[in-house]
Amino acid sequence: MTYKELERNGKSAKGKMYLLKYFNKDKLTFREACIAKCYECMGMYIDGKVDCGIKDCPLYPFMPFRKGTKQAMRKMSDKQKKKISLNLHKKTDSNTVASHNNA
């Protein structure tokens, strides 16, 4: 399937936008990638927006039309949040330095 085929023929459902984003070589979050994969695996929901029922699939907890309880968001401690924040700042600072060195 190509970007144009998906854009033209793909059913409007959760995941289409993320799959188009992927085909456009844009970065996806983990959640967006899971939803895009479900969209693709379910044949663009051509039979309707329903639960796939594939409980053995590692992405099933993230399936957008899954019946039952949804995947609970993980709670992060303040320590974990601070660590992530510091790592993001380190990456941002190193990317800034690298871009100035390449200029």
Question: How would you describe what is shown here?
Answer:
- This protein is mainly alpha-helical and 103 residues long.
- It folds into two domains: 71 residues, no CATH class; 31 residues.
- 50% of the residues lie in helices and 0% in strands.
- The chain contains four helices and no strands.
- Helix 2 crosses helix 3.
- The model has no long low-confidence stretch (mean pLDDT 81).
Short description:
The protein is mainly alpha-helical.
Shape: flat
Low-confidence stretches: none
Largest sheet: none
Q: What is the number of strand segments?
A: 0
Overall SS class? mainly alpha
Number of separate helices:
4
Overall radius of gyration: 18 Å
Content of β-strand: under 5%
Overall pLDDT metric = 81
Q: Sketch the topology as an H/E string, one letter per element.
A: HHHH
Instruction: Domain count, please report it.
Output: 2
Distance from N terminus to C terminus (CA atoms, Å) equals 39 Å
Helix content: 40-55%
